[in-house]
Design a protein that fits this description.
The chain is of the alpha+beta class. The protein has helices at about 40-45, 90-100, 120-130, 140-145, 150-155, 160-165, and strands at about 1-5, 15-25, 25-30, 35-40, 55, 60-70, 80-85, 85-90, 110-120, 130-135. The protein has a single domain (about 1-165), classed as VC0467-like, CATH 3.40.1740.10.
Length: about 170
């Protein structure tokens, strides 16, 4: 996972925690886990089954797309495991059928508008200028309460990171 440095000012990523779903020489992509938007999936897709699930801002790339992370790779065809027990995507029509059949529940899935992406070498360069810290991923980070996720991830890393976690957001004049 990527954890925004405390002084990163880009509003897209300020105090953000990103689950990297793919990291290759050619580039990287993932989803911001702790930026909910004030909409449900039914607000975005009128033909979607009635489903009480929050939607998150996944990042500034292709904000006209919807993605999803879930725990049901065991039943949802074409899902890609991105971390132990966490899957990305899968057959969208089958997803809707499983929701109607109550086989996928709101706690099993997170929807994202857009994603976070980096071209070849871009993420490495951002790490060199100290925009990002890294942390081990955990399924609870993806599907748990994320209101204090940035702070909780740093506290769990311990040591100096615990101290960084206590820093208030910077105020600029």
């Amino acid at each position: 996972m990527l954890v925004a440095e405390p002084f990163l000012q880009d509003p897209n990523f300020r105090r953000g925690v990103i689950l990297l779903c793919d990291h290759q020489k050619e580039g990287s992509f993932g989803f911001i886990l702790n930026k909910p938007i004030d909409m449900g999936i039914n607000d975005l897709i009128s033909s979607f089954p009635d489903f009480k699930s929050e939607v998150y801002y996944g990042g500034p790339v292709q904000t006209d797309t919807i993605h999803y992370l879930h725990t049901r790779g065991d039943i949802l065809p074409n899902s890609i495991e991105v971390m132990s027990g966490v899957y990305w995507g899968g057959d969208f029509e089958q997803l809707k059928e499983f929701i109607l059949a109550d086989k996928i529940k709101p706690n099993d899935i997170r929807f994202f508008v857009g994603y976070s992406g980096w071209a070849a070498g871009q993420l490495k360069n951002e790490q060199k200028v100290l925009s990002w810290m890294t942390a081990d991923g955990h399924i609870d980070y993806v599907f748990g309460d994320n209101k204090l996720l940035w702070k909780n991830v740093l506290e769990e890393k311990g040591g100096t990171y615990s101290i960084i976690a206590q820093m208030p957001p910077p105020i600029l004049n």
